[in-house]
Amino acid sequence: MSSIDRSREVGVTRSYEIRTYGCQMNVHDSERLAGLLEDAGYVRAPEGSDGDADVVVFNTCAVRENADNRLYGNLGRLAPQKTKRPGMQIAVGGCLAQKDRDTIVKKAPWVDVVFGTHNIGKLPVLLERARVQEEAQVEIAESLEAFPSTLPTRRESAYAAWVSISVGCNNTCTFCIVPALRGKEKDRRPGEILAEVDALVGEGVSEITLLGQNVNAYGSDIGDREAFSKLLRACGNVEGLERVRFTSPHPRDFTDDVIAAMAETPNVMPQLHMPLQSGSDPVLKAMRRSYRQERYLGIIEKVRAAIPHAAITTDIIVGFPGETEEDFEQTLHVVREARFAQAFTFQYSKRPGTPAAEMEDQVPKEVVQARYERLVALQEEISWAENKKQVGRTLELMVAEGEGRKDGATHRLSGRAPDNRLVHFTKPDQEVRPGDVVTVEITYAAPHHLLAEGTALSVRRTRAGDAWEKRTAAEAAKPAGVMLGLPKIGVPAPAPVPSGSGCGCD
Question: Any idea what DSSP says for residue 447?
Fold first, then answer.
């Protein structure tokens, strides 16, 4: 009998905490890790437990220069807690685990389990093996063992969900280490994806985000160049599915059939996150980005012609090796021409293991900082101007949970417009639940959000709101200390902000 079975027998429940870093793929993987642990009998530790759980899992990211320092600093802070708590276990997974492997246990010998991006399904088994054998278990698979969506899951949101359509990436961008850690692109079959979407809608989900490292390259692994546009159209036929989004596409694979599918499928939202990275052709070539400025702006023009109210967001890297002032001015030119609603902006930092880290002509830090500040100032100006165009419009909002930090003090609620803009609105007299739909008129615009200060024009109770209410009631009925769910790691509403908080590797 396993220790998990014995703990169930004597009424002792082991708790878990997951700390997630990096991109949306990691967020989605953490939902799977939570599902695996709960399926094995663990329960989520209360909010704010800060390492007091029986099992602490780090789902890591490797794309930032100081990712390893951050991990080892956090592991170091847990070492005294583990000494005081016999039976406590620490596991490290994700991209940094895939990259560093045995190094983690050498630097932090109190870690019990190290697992990679390809074998997240092994976590409960590895924890059990480490407990029985009383030694660290390091298991890194070189290729995908099971597609993540076949694993149990515990989703963060009752009304919105990620749906992974592919894993891995076939690109060779010189600043990105993700393909080396996630492997070549592997696509799910369309029938499997649509079956998952149908099941989610049956549970009350009304918004899905199709997820892939290079989402619109979907089909390259199954031999159909138009597979992604067909998938978008197929999602339009799912009854009860109100909103479809996707992230992140690559300009190289953004074809006219995808634009047509977006424009002609009513539940595909008028929102596009299209990574630019640089507006300079020489820099794009050095990055091994397979498009140039003209091609990129041509895509934006086509999208705007087909979907006039589309909100377009992007990723930009400032200070890539060899970037000159003229190169940077070309980036500013694209920003002015494209008029992005928002942008993730990043100061280039060396990613260990990438070709760019070994390039000559690394740009001095003070130059990068100055350019970054100029870019942020320009984008702030444009974001505000674009948001001001929304004033006076009537919008349908899907009510969100946890997106308005000041909602309690201002007596407001928050929601997402179809184009994914964040809107804070006056709380209606009638009950409104996350997942419900509220129609409002926009009265004020700030650079990163909108306000609807008048009375809501209508409130529509939805099956998604019912699902949120049912789940909330079920969790409230659990015994004290038995709290299901995930730590606050975000819901599928990938609205970029200019602080550069994403991974920037798309």
Answer: S
Write out the DSSP string of 246-308. Answer: EE---GGG--HHHHHHHHH-TTB-SEEE---B-S-HHHHHHHT-S--HHHHHHHHHHHHHH-T
Element (H, E) at 174: none
Half-sphere exposure of 210 (CA within 13 A, CB side): 34
Structural tokens at position 51: 């390492």
Going by C-alpha positions, the residue among 37, 83, 77, 81 that lies closest to residue 57 is: 37
Residue 196's contacts (CB-CB under 8 Å, 6 or more residues apart) are 149, 163
Is residue 488's pLDDT more than 50?
A: no
For the chain, the C-alpha Rg in angstroms (whole number) is 23
Helix (H, G, I), strand (E, B) or coil at 448: coil
pLDDT-based confidence at 480, cuts 50/70/90? very low
Give burial (CB, 10 Å; 0-12/13-18/19+) of 37: buried
Q: What pTM was computed for the model?
A: 0.82
Q: CA-to-CA distance for 263 and 287, rounded, in angstroms?
A: 31
Report d(CA 345, CA 369) in Å as an integer: 12
Q: How far apart are CA 310 and CA 313, in angstroms?
A: 10
Tokens found for residue 372: 């970054």
Q: Which helix (H) or strand (E) holds 396?
A: strand 394-399
What is the Cα–Cα distance from 151 to 196, expressed in whole angstroms?
Answer: 12
> pLDDT grade, residue 12 (50/70/90)?
low
Burial (CB count within 10 angstroms: exposed 0-12, middle 13-18, buried 19+), residue 314 = buried
Tens-place pLDDT, residues 146-155 = 676 667 778 8
Close Cβ partners of 87 (under 8 Å, ≥ 6 residues apart):
54, 131
Residue 364: which residues within 8 A CB-CB, separation 6 or more? none
**C-beta atoms surrounding 373 within 10 Å:** 13
d(CA 330, CA 324): 10
CA atoms of 269 and 277, how far apart (whole Å):
24
Give the residue-averaged pLDDT of 99-120.
Answer: 88
Give the C-alpha separation, 439 to 457, whole Å.
5
Which contiguous run of DSSP H or E holds residue 372?
Answer: helix 365-388
User: Tens digit of pLDDT for each residue in 373-420?
Assistant: 999 999 999 999 999 999 999 999 999 998 887 877 888 999 999 999
- Tell me the pLDDT tens digit for each residue of 448-464: 999 999 999 999 999 99
